[in-house]
What we know:
This protein is mainly beta. It contains 5 helices and 38 strands.
Amino acid sequence: xxxxKIILWLAGLGLLGVAGTFAxxxxxxMIGAAFxxxxxxxxxxxxxxEVEVRQPATASNVTTPVPTGSALTEWASxxxxxxxxxxxxxAQINADNAANLKVICTYDTKRLEGSQTGLLMIEGxxxxxTAEDIFALDPLTCEEKWRIEEKSGIGxxxxxxxxxxxxxxxxxxxxxxxxxxxxxxxxxKLWETYLGQKDKKMWFNAAPVAWxxxxxxxxxxxxxxxxRGRVFGIDANTGKALWQIFTVPKQADDELLAPxxxxxxxxxxxxxxxxxxxxxxxxxxxxxxxxxPETGYLYIPVGNPAPDFVKSLRPGSNLMTNTMLIVDAxxxxxVKRYDIMKDDWHDWDMSNPPTLYxxxxxxxxxxxxxxxxxxxxxxxxxxKQLYRNPVTKQLNTDVPFEPYKPVYxxxxxxxxxEWNSAxxxxxxxxxxxxxxEWCTTAEIKPxxxxxxxxxxxxxxxxxxxxSPYKMAGMQDPVEKWGGWVYxxxxxxxxxxxxxxxxxxxxxxxxPTAGGIVAFGDMGGNFRIMRASxxxxxxxxxxxxxxxxxxxxxxINGTQRIAAMSGVNHPQWPVKPxxxxxLVFGVK
Length: 587
């Protein structure tokens, strides 16, 4: 092929990317990623699954109260309840009939993007989001009832992880930094409030959580140069910011949009030993939160510091990054914290909301599974860590990074556990976790080069690689990746059974009173397992990867399961598809 033909071919691809950008509502990076993944993706080879049973779990002989009304039939928050247990008390779909599941209906968002929305089902409407849309569907037929698009400037990685609901209103954030409220039944916009800062290129994609007349939310972007995490408590009726805190020490150019909650600022500042020309960066909160209505405590999983891989530029423990931060929900005032990783140079941050529950032994516990690939559980009465057990591959976790010396480590920089929470099944006293097994090689720059000429708001890992596909290090070939579901005893942390798949598991994992647990993987494989021992009861392959919400609900006396599929992302080499909602039922 001569030079002229090559130029014409590249120009044609460019025009195709621009056309696709407008046609599919994405951006040129997503269109380019889709094109690359068509040729260099995992190719969606046949699913493989290996089940290992150590000891089947036994059902409790204690009868627990079954909720009634909407608490039984609806899925009204990111993790069903604001305590994030993810367990559904519905049992119409169960271990005896799960093999008869069928796809009842589908809804195509027609968006080529991350497709990670947490789904809700409230008052007879199935709610979802894209980067710039919010929509309501009939939960039995997938018929669109209303859809609102806000032209808000799709960012580098267009994705939204879902809305929150309270008192007839829906709330979500957009790439332009606005949180907007909508009437549930009609989609009518009720208010909007700006939560960004005009001169700061922050990311806005986390799902809010709602309680007691307030909305709680924080910005993403823990990997960005000169961006600091901030968390807000917002009036649900007016959109007014009632309080604001910074998850890392506030700097002189950071704006306050509300009264500042009381944080241990002197202690935080003392843990950052950055040189004068290296700004304190990180502490984004890029997923939802958990709230304990008994205490009024808001549990905030705080992400990593930056530069992610160059620890020498940010000496100290870098409070409050990589911390489960707990504040008073009404005021934002600091209560306490659980320090998870005092020294993180792998991008192993706090990545999902904790699950609050009472175990079979009668203890009030808290569990979560960050990107470091461990299941953590704490006793909420004593604040003591009960266990920290690996739930995916661990390799070279203590090897320090040095300039120009590649280090291979597992979990890689993409986890471990990602944005979807652990789930607790009270019937079997099991904590379920979905995990990624994908290792990374990182080669870092020396301090002077890692700190040089990095624009504010730009991804800042400190790696030597030039390729945008290697900004977070060089990932293993996809032939080596995989995923895990662990079913761990909540009181001891010992796994009862576990499953390894040949695709990462990033999407939500959902157990129910029907004795089943449902999940999907990045190869588009959707499964129902027997909760007690991991027996595969149902499996079906779809074109789109699963990385978003997976919920179950009942409407007109009929139980359904709904899942978000269809991931397109430059970091995840899977077959590109538009986002689709799949609704399953037993015929």
